[in-house]
TrEMBL record:
Keywords: Chromosome, DNA replication, Nucleus. GO terms for biological process: DNA-templated DNA replication; double-strand break repair via break-induced replication. CDD domains: GINS_A_Sld5, GINS_B_Sld5. One of its GO terms (cellular component) is GINS complex. Residues 65-136 form the GINS subunit domain. Residues 157-215 form the DNA replication complex GINS protein SLD5 C-terminal domain. It comes from the Eukaryota. Its main location: nucleus. It is found in: Chromosome; Nucleus. Belongs to the GINS4/SLD5 family. This is DNA replication complex GINS protein SLD5.
């Protein structure tokens, strides 16, 4: 499978590496309090891989043990893929005004946190929410109270929540805020293979770069 990056180069991944990338994205999305960067290349390649596997399965002899093993593998991949996409939709429904605001203020060249389909879904969800609010509640209120800011009324993702992680690449001088009266910052080293419980916003850039894996 091939994944295109921002410079139109293609990174060729083996099926095993592709599935590992999907599982890493899935676990990070499950455990991160905010919506993470969209991974449309991984999704596209996984769907292609599933199509290829199913085509091979149709050509295989019935009763072959390999058939049932491959069938189980296809089901497992489908489960991870659907769980990953569902997890993202749940976050979009929960935090839609903040996600759309972040997408609007995104700099050119900065990766999008929404796929085109997710962006369309988020905009429609916001429009439907606003229409529902107007029809059900706001029209019965005084004119000066008929405007509502969804950005203010919908809770933001809690970036201060704590997450478990495993370190994939050694990191030095990671600044952590201790829970003390002084709130002094101190630096720690995250050793490769080590596991930690850390405030999410401290390691959010490391999750994005793939240096750590949420677990």
């Amino acid at each position: 499978a091939a994944m295109a990056d921002g410079e139109d180069e293609e990174l060729v991944l083996s099926p095993a590496q592709l599935l590992l990338s999907l599982e890493q994205a899935w676990l990070n999305e499950k455990f991160a309090p905010e919506l993470l960067e969209s991974k449309p290349e991984i999704i596209e390649c996984v769907v292609e891989q599933l199509d290829h596997m199913e085509a091979n399965l149709k050509r295989a002899k019935r009763g072959d043990l390999k058939v049932s093993v491959h069938h189980m593998e296809i089901e497992r991949i489908r489960y991870v893929l659907s769980s990953y996409l569902r997890c993202r939709l749940v976050k979009i429904e929960k935090f839609f005004p903040h996600i759309l605001e972040k997408e609007k203020s995104r700099a050119d060249g900065e990766p999008s946190i929404l796929s085109p389909e997710e962006f369309a879904f988020a905009k429609e969800y916001m429009a439907n929410t606003e229409t529902h609010l107007k029809n059900v509640a706001l029209k019965h209120m005084p004119p000066n109270l008929q405007k509502v800011s969804l950005l203010k009324s919908v809770p933001k993702p809690n970036l201060d929540s704590f997450v478990f992680l495993r370190v994939l690449e050694r990191q030095e001088n990671i600044l952590v805020e201790p829970e003390t009266d002084e709130q002094r910052e101190y630096a720690i080293t995250l050793e490769e293979g080590s596991q930690h419980l850390i405030r999410y916003k401290t390691v959010a850039p490391l999750v994005a770069s793939g240096a750590v894996q949420l677990i």
